[in-house]
Structures are given as C-alpha cells and as structure tokens.
Design a protein that fits this description.
Oligomer: heterodimer
Order of helices and strands of chain B: EEHEHEE
Shape of chain A: globular
Largest interface: A-B, 26 and 32 residues
Largest sheet of chain A: 2 strands, parallel
Order of helices and strands of chain A: HHHHHEEHHHHEEHH
Number of helices of chain B: 2
Helix content of chain A: 25-40%
Helix content of chain B: under 10%
CATH topology of chain B: SH3 type barrels
Strand content of chain B: 35-45%
Strand order of the largest sheet of chain B: 4-3-2-1-5
Radius of gyration of chain B: 14 Å
Distance between the termini of chain A: 48 Å
Chain lengths: 237, 99
C-alpha cells in the first residue's frame, strides 16, 4: 500500500494509524496517557525487546522500499499526536448548545465536522457519533485490537488497548463502568459498541445539570476523554 | 451496492465458522443471532487486505445488535444490555422473520 492510498482499513499501515496491535503493554495506567510517543519507540518501557526489534525492522524496510519516507512517517505521528481530546470536547459542547449542529453530527459526523471545525478528515476512517440519553448509555471498545476515533481524540489510553478492558467490557459492562466511578441508574440501559471494522465511534455524554446558559468553552471543560469513550460521565458543573 | 442487501431490522445469525487467517469477526459473536440496526456502507474485504490483496469486490458492512443473554447465556452476570458489532455481509446469514 502506498502512502497515497486513501483506504484506512487494515491494521498496520493506515494513514491515521487508527488501531494497532498488542504490544504486551498492560494497561495499568488507567486514566493517564501513555507518556511516550508511539511509533518509532526506541526505549524499552514495557515493550518486549522482540516486539521493538520487529517494529524497527518493519519500519526500516518500509522506508527502504519507498512505501513511505521517514519524514512522512514523522508527519503522520505528529498529526496523530496533535489531536487531543480537547477537540472532541469542543465538538460535544457545541452539540449540547447547537441543535442543528447536533442533528447534523448524529446524522453524518464527518461532513459536519469537516464543515464546522475545518478538519481535514479525508484520509481518516469513517466515524459515527452516539448520543447518551437517560435511557441508554453507550460505551465503546474494540475487542479485536484498539480501534479508536484517533482523528478526533488522538492516541488512545493504554487501558483501552489492554486485554482486560477489551475482554471484560463486553461481558460485565456495569462492573467495568463502576471501576471507572460510573454508576448508572438501573433504568438506564447499556449499549456496548464493539468497533470491529471500518467505523469509529465517539460518544456524546449527557449534559450535566446546572449548566444552562453556559458557553461552548465553559461546557467543553466538563467533557473528558473517558466520557467520550463512554466509561465515564461528563464532569459535574 | 449489493442488491441482496439486508434491511434494517433483519434478523441474522453470525456464521459459526473459524477460518484460518485474518478476519474482523469476534469469536464471542460467532453463531449468535442479532438484528441489523444500520448499514454502514461498502468496504474492501479485510480478510484480503490483510494479505495485501485489493479486497474487491467491496462488501457491505452492517452494524448488528445483540442481546447480552443471546451472547453470553448462563455466563451473564449483569442485567440485560445490548452489544453492537460491525460485521461484513459474508459473515451474516439471514433468518426468517423480522425483528
């Protein structure tokens, strides 16, 4: 696959590097970011030496064969890392206060964001926005690897990629949510969204009470990364 | 667009198959019954892409919803909930009757 291809479907060479495979990195640091850049990783830092060697050999071969250049790789890493949950938080906050935007976002996320946030999402995977209500709470996972809406939220947290989260959230979601400090009312149903293929999912959490009249930036401060994955609620006002 | 595409609301069973090689159908859903809730579009076949083939013709991708009881049976430890997964058409067998 050349660097110019606009498909984003397979694991190891998509533009946005939208999911990656296990690197035996136990996701113990729940709630905190990785703390180190992802690809070219030159420090051991929890990775098995043979995995590092494999990554390095593959990267060097791809560069040597002209599939992409080292500069292109670095630009893609920079682009991915420049995206942070702050962007997602602004999107959620706007959806809370702008009904037409919310409707368009739920119906067709990518074109709506391309227009409203001037985002270049052409080379990124499709994604869908899911809205939590009093009746249903969405929680997103990827049981097969680590598919994640990187074009909006940036690099996923380590726990999202951990085998523990991926295995447990589909069979005991209430228990997992409780460990994140999220206790849902019994009347609220749960929908576990396993992003197994080409669609990525972003959750709009419930708007916290007591925020009437708040503007977008004040609201955005309440929207955490975890609330957009669905393991938490938005912060209280 | 596949003319034989399944409408929203169609009841389906995920094929109970364990082929060798790369695929994007989780083991825990194979053989389980669900309902098509959305057609997500047509995409190259990941089972071909994984081996650097073009993955054509494009395949329809469906978001399919499952009841937790159907998926886990007696292993279920929590009140009922729903699971959705995105599955390619060749993994889905239509079942008689609408949702």
């Amino acid at each position: 696959m050349s660097a110019g291809d606009d498909h984003d479907h397979d694991e190891d060479h998509d533009h946005d590097h939208d999911h990656d495979h296990d690197h035996d990195h136990d996701g113990g640091d729940r709630g905190s970011p990785h703390g180190h850049p992802h690809a070219p990783v030159d420090d051991l830092d929890g990775y098995r030496p043979e995995s590092l060697l494999l990554e390095r050999a593959l990267r060097e071969l791809l560069i040597e064969q002209g599939v992409f250049s080292a500069a292109e790789l670095q630009r893609q890493i920079d682009a991915t890392e420049s995206r942070t949950p702050a962007l997602g938080a602004r999107i959620v906050a706007r959806a809370w206060i702008d009904e037409a935007f919310r409707r368009d976002l739920l119906a067709a996320a990518k074109p709506t964001l391309g227009a409203s946030f001037a985002l270049d999402l052409v080379d990124t995977p499709e994604f869908t926005v899911l809205e939590n209500t009093a009746q249903v709470h969405h929680v997103v996972c990827c049981t097969l690897c680590s598919c994640y809406p990187r074009s909006i939220l940036g690099v996923p947290p380590a726990w999202y990629k951990s085998r523990e989260y991926r295995a447990r959230v589909v069979i005991e979601p209430r228990a997992v949510l409780k460990e994140f400090g999220t206790e849902l009312p019994p009347a609220c149903g749960i929908r576990v969204v396993d992003s197994t293929a080409d669609m990525r999912y972003l959750v709009i959490p419930l708007r916290p009470p007591g925020t009437d009249g708040w503007d977008e930036s004040r609201l955005a401060a309440l929207v955490t990364r975890d609330s957009m994955i669905g393991v938490a609620q938005a912060l209280r006002a | 667009m596949n003319p034989a595409s399944m409408p929203v609301g169609a009841r389906v069973r995920v094929r109970a198959a364990w082929p060798q090689g790369h695929c994007r159908t989780p083991h825990y859903l194979r053989g389980k019954q669900g309902v098509v809730v959305r057609r997500l579009g047509d995409y190259p076949n990941p089972e071909q892409l994984a081996y650097h083939r073009p993955g054509l013709p494009l395949l329809a991708l469906y978001q399919v919803e499952f009841d937790s009881a159907e998926v886990w049976g007696e292993r279920l430890r929590e009140p009922p909930y729903r699971i959705t997964a995105d599955l390619f058409e060749h993994w889905l067998e239509p079942l008689a009757g609408e949702h």
